[in-house]
Amino acid sequence: MHITFGPNTYFHADRTQSGHNCHRFVSMQGVGVDLHATIKRRPQTSNSHTVSEARLETLQSASKHLPFSNSGFLSRNSNFHHLSEEERQKLGGYEYRAICLLSWLVPAYYLLFQLFGCLGIGAYVAMSKPLVARENGLNPWWVGSFNAVSAFNNSGMSLLDANMVAFQTSIYMLITMGLLILAGNTCYPIFLRLIVWTLLKLMPSCESWDHHRKTLQFLLDHPRRCYTNLFPSRHTWWLLACVVCLNGIDWVAFEVLNIGNEAITSLPAGIGILDGLFQALAVRSGGFYVVPIPSVRVSLQVLYVIMMYISVYPVVITMRSSNVYEERSLGIYADEEQNLPQTTPQDVSKRHGLFSALRQRLSGSHHSHEQTRSYFVRQQLRAQLAHDLWWLVLAVFVIMIIEGSNFAREPAIFSVFNVIFETVSAYGCVGVSVGFPDQAYSFAGGLHTLSKLVLCAVMIRGRHRGLPVAIDKAVLLPGEGVDEAEEEDGEIRLERTISRGRTVLIGARTSSRNREPYSKRSKRKNLA
């Protein structure tokens, strides 16, 4: 019996796994991953020669994105495939040098921002506002230093009972603390990339510095291969736009919704605008306030609840959409879409008729062919919202049960909205509170002990929602397993592109027909 395979059939190299074989009842490889498939069939095309020639024009060459000459190709999110073993080693060398750079740049970032913040704000309080600290029995330098560190770490804690209300007119202190709040949280990836870009521009162009310039350029071009909180250029601009937009909404709402509010109109015009800007920067994540929360309009308090809840989303969405190693574990293989012609509903109608096109438009099936970054972000956002809401709803429900007697006695103070505000503030790790009447402590200070424990659990859970998932590694050391996985990712994405009817198909495999697959090269090396 003879078995003959057609010209459109190709084989994957066998990948032996060390260790004993184990069988799982449920596969943990993710949707779309088929590790047992050994034969895959290319779709029949009538113009295969024309397609194979056009593939090279549409695939992105990796030589334009790497500081050394190579013959590989670049996929989405800085995934490289069809690199030789020597080229893989060079790529690992640049990753290692970039990580070494970050190993001292990131600690220096944290140390210097807090050091200069402590010196600047401490000196200001000691020179301009010493009575504010001494009236509370505190050293002015200690008050300024404590506020600087608290602002950078977004803890919202202050040594003064009135938080930042005593510094409503302190222009320098409000601006400096606002910058520290941004530098320590939402703008950290932005500032870090700005520092790397500045170092690259200031570095001499002589040959002796060429090695360092290439390392900095590699870090700017492919940051997510080295660090979870350093994003590519487009993602960084998107994050900056989100930060400006959200803070701008808070700022405008503070000025507009508080028209006629004596707590705001009593301030000088310029100071009121600056206070609104600082409160917009601080309430989302910093935890400070210059105008007491109960003094602002209720509509603004509702907006603050929304902003505290979504405060972590810009960074998380950017982190998810720019990941390099996470998609393989999740079984997500988006198509290569940089230079691919898209199939429009008009093209569908020409090929399949008006009724078929209308059915696809109503069912949304034509969008199912585009598993793009936006789709991945939407899925992450929906999962995050569903993951968050049940915690908040359950916490509010339990606290209202515990505080039933207090609500019956003082419904205005222990209102449902106040409980929601406190719970969302705890879940977002913001620290802003509506306060307790005639008391120096927050609203949580008037709750029962069991309610405080519930808030503690909510804070612990909320503290971890902004972290990358365990499979999204910050650093993945080079190795043959990693290299083969990345090569296989490139193959799978190209195969998906073929199956989805794109005109750009498998050029990488055609162009490298005379090259030995990486998995075979590595296996032959091990046998030797």
TrEMBL record:
InterPro entries for the chain: Cat_transpt, K/Na_transp_Trk1/HKT1, Trk1_fungi, TrkH_K-transport
TM ranges: 98-127, 172-195, 237-257, 269-290, 302-319, 389-408
Top-level taxon of origin: Eukaryota
Membrane topology designation: Multi-pass membrane protein
Subcellular location: Membrane
GO BP annotations listed: intracellular potassium ion homeostasis; potassium ion import across plasma membrane
Swiss-Prot/TrEMBL keywords: Ion transport, Membrane, Potassium, Potassium transport, Transmembrane, Transmembrane helix, Transport
Gene Ontology cellular component annotations, sorted alphabetically: plasma membrane
UniProt keyword Hydrolase, yes or no: no
Family to which this protein belongs: Belongs to the TrkH potassium transport family.
Name used for this protein in its record: TrkH-domain-containing protein
Organism: Byssothecium circinans
